[in-house]
Amino acid sequence: MSGFKERMNRLRGGGSNSGSEIPEALADEASAAAIEEELLRSEGEKLAAKSAAAMPDLSEQEPGVDPEEAVWRQMGVILRQTDKGCYLQRRIQYPGVFSHGTHTLNEWRSAEEGLRKFHGSRGEIGEEAILYLDLETTGLGSGTGNVPFMVGLAYMESGFWVVEQNLIRHPSEERAMLHELALRIGRCSHLATYNGKSFDWPLVKSRMIMNAIPLPSEEPAHLDFLHPSRSIWRNTLPSLKLSYVEEERLGIQREEDVPGSLAPSLYFQYLASGDPSPLEGVFRHNESDLLSLVCLSVRFGLLLSGEIFNRIPYPEEAEELVRCGLWLEKMGLASLAEPLYLLAEGKEADSSLWLKLAERDKKAGNFERAVLLWQKVVCISGSRIGPDAQEACVQLSMYFEHRVKDLQQGLLFAEMALRGAEERETLLKRGEKRKHDAVGMRARVERLRRKAGVQHHLECGE
Amino acid sequence: MNRWTGKAGSFEEWLDYIRSDAEIMSNVTHWRTIPSREAQFAPLPPLLHQRLRDALSGRGINGLYRHQADAFDAVSRGRHVVAVTPTASGKTYCYNLPVLQSLLDNDEGRALYLFPTKALAQDQVAELQELANLMDVDIKTHTYDGDTPPTVRNAIRNAGHIVVTNPDMLHSAILPHHTKWVKLFENLKFIVIDEVHAYRGVFGSHVANVIRRLKRIAAFYGSRPQFICASATIDNPREHAEALIGEAVTLVDNNGAPMGEKHFVFYNPPVVNKQLGIRKSSVLETRKLAALLLKQGIQTIVFARSRVRVELLLTYLQELVRDKLAPSTIRGYRGGYLPNLRREIERGLRSGEIRGVVSTNALELGIDIGQLQACVLNGYPGTVASTWQQSGRAGRRQESSVTFMVASSNPLDQYMIQNPDFFFNRPPERALIHPDNLLILIDHVKCAAYELPFNRGDVFGGEKLEDLMEFLVEEKVLHYADDRWYWMNQSFPAHNISLRSAAQENFVIVDLTDSQHRVLGEVDRFSAPTLIHEEAIYIHEGVQYQVEKLDYPEKKAYVRQVDVEYYTDAQLAVELKVLHVDKEASTGELLRQYGELTVNAKATIFKKIRLSTHENIGSGPIHLPEEELHTSGYWFSFSEEAAARRSKNEMQFALLGIANVLVHIAPLYLMCDPFDIRVVPQVKAVHTERPTIYFYDRYPGGIGLSERLYQVHDELISRAKALIARCSCLSGCPACVGPIEEVGLLGKEQAMQLLTEVGGAE
To answer: pTM of the entire structure?
Structure first.
């Protein structure tokens, strides 16, 4: 062995040739430093007492003596033995009244009707038939070398909510853990995740293939709450990470959370040392993610059943109101959207939002409001016709030409649009696209002039 | 010849006219006529599926060429096959027929095709699609590469019967995501590797490891695919294919395709300065010959060795024939042209609309451009194999064709042009790979571990797996549990490993002269310290630039145009340390050895040398890191008696002269880039304490080049001697031992004397 290592080192000795190795080593250094910094920071804060409602389920725990086992026990982790092998498990039961931020877990029952709308054809969601899933993995992406070392699950069982976290002590325990996961997936009709459509679920499928474990032929209906979150909060929240969304919108404050990005390094630390303590933070992080995910599903369920604004106030910003409405319409709930638009109308917002709403109104045939919104955009922009105002002018011009058949008005707005396009044309000499804009505008103006049969003198000229 | 139009009545008549032109013929050192060859047919294999028979007869094919039938037969007997075929011999049928046959029998089957470039992959898909259409069956063929839109990728993974890709894509996109390709891997019946000769050296060694990984994944899904390889003519096709795929292979090399008469003309530009051994520019002579052909209306391909030469020749030719042909009928073709433009040119060549094309070796590989009638090679293409490939672009099945090879003044060209028998009688070069090069191997072991855990007792390459595994555990990328090694690291190893790493090591030269900075060119990593150190004068297309800043870590040199009357010459201190001698032999007074060594190279100082007088007008230090390379090498040393017979200075010139010749003719035995192998002469080497000439592979760990040279040592020395003896210069020129400025006035004589007295060759 040492002979081999010597040979490797000699070959790599060339300095510049060992290129690929150095950055990796540096990356290790960097992550070690980041962990240390994180831990130091949290050390200063006092360890918050666990929520009184959380009761670690210790019934299956075995007596043990060695220190490692003691640490596990302290964390509420037990050994799971199955006919396929062993792995570790931490189970925590929550009563329905447990409140996590704005919502309590009990509210899931009222949210269920709304949640059906994600997969209308599947009908009712049995309260024990939905499985919340969040993986912690050793790397990024869905490549075959990325191993889920922790499978976090949340589900309802006998009236309680259970957070079940499965951990492998080394990769050869993965198979046993996945077997149990496959069984559980087989029993559920719905799967709920955050970004699971592109990460957790493909990874689960890949791992099952790697371990030759068959999955049920019919996949569970998948509710990935990242997608509606993105539709609604894209511009109102600085990030769509679950930890942001929960803090800003679900009233959840995490105490001393270990960032998910550190999870792999902490797990490697555990693998190298055998000391479970670095994993405590990962357990807590994963547990918080799962609870937040349940609450987020409650939020969307109540939103879709039209009940949410009996519970919490309407969003403050027009942006969020309009995007929320648009999403509800996409989900087939136009009637719930209208009140949100009405509220938004009275608020201030970027003109692009009004264009968006106007576009929706135009499609829905609500020209009355669309015209008002376009005019609003033109007003906001003042004397300088920016790109949004130009678009509004074009829309107004089309509206007057085709719907009202008022060619004079149509021409007026077309000319305004042209003025805007030309202003920018001189500003941006190289912007090919803008230039085309002006060409299009000119064509429109000329056509309208011909149509109106009017010779008009332009102040700004050609 | 028509007196009025200057046009010959036929191709043969034109050749006669050339033969009678004294001026041209005085430069022709050899004219070889290779007689036409009749096709050798074999009946369609009895097993061949009826639909395939119908499709073939739809194309007017009622029998196969012998080699096609043999390939089909060997594949149907379950053998791995390598088919060796020259250009335009219907090579694709060698693999397409057995693959389609299998898919007709079993619709669930899958095949993976590997081509070294994307363009070749595109051609293949078109061909297969056409056959599938002729058979009216739903056999789906798709390319899967960087250009494949994400929207169709999923469909290709699940439903593509034949997936056409390249080794790089396999390495970084398919294998690490094999669980997305279950359908393919579970049903993988064939792996087709075309152009296997292109997978040599470092690149080939990487690809061999990618194939090891591919086989490992296939085995995981329970399939054991059969390999069908195709190669251009090389010396060791079977050995090479076996090294590449790690399986015993059946060789099919009985080419049965017909070929019209072929004229191969060796053309040496006339000497313009006998003393200095300077010949007329090969570019100008190439232009002259190509223009003669094009003016006759003969469809012609010109091969040049660099992109710059392609552009130069193209401009010349378009200018010369402007009154006869539109510029759009003479085109360039090289890397850097956009794919659409390339396709357009390929189409134009096939249809005959384009009458002439000037290309780099980009058109050497099997891209379909039809068959042309004449080929002009500007310079010897570097290997016998390439020369035949390029020349094969001209050659029709019925009519005769001609290839002119115009020699440049470099020693290898001069050797070839003066030794036609060597070219025609000798087998082409050997393709060498060394998949067990430790650095390459360990990279792929990482990738393989990422793809699937290793079990104790598994085999991957020639090293003991446990050693590799324990090393990687120590490096903290693997974790050992229950007799298995698992990937346990956040990184994605394939991203850090490029199969074509050599190319990525280049330094880019950026011109700061204008406000819009532009990239002038590239310099390889090993030449950078002496060519583009700070203050160096870098000459590009005859214009002088001074290097203002060399960003070594970023691999960029910033230069600005200058006008000065000197050039710079950097000194490179090279230290060689022999670590281990593996083999040893002696001939005459020469002792030769092969083993491991380390090379430390450091640029020390540079001198400014006046252009007109060559006097030294200043110098400066170079501060760049030392390069250390651990590799394999071969060296031979002269006896102490030989050393005692001459002064140290004389020995220095003699060794330098011999080294200059050897480094140029070494590629005769190797398929490699001239930069892949280095030579260093030392008057008193540390290891042997004698005058010694060292060769080493310029890749850490070595890739088998020096080892091969060690084997052919005697032949190498006698070739060198013959080259020096036959060179017409008085006392050294760039075509033999090097110019007088380098080896002194007596360099040629001393090199010759030294070689003769040690009797190393006979």
So the answer is: 0.83
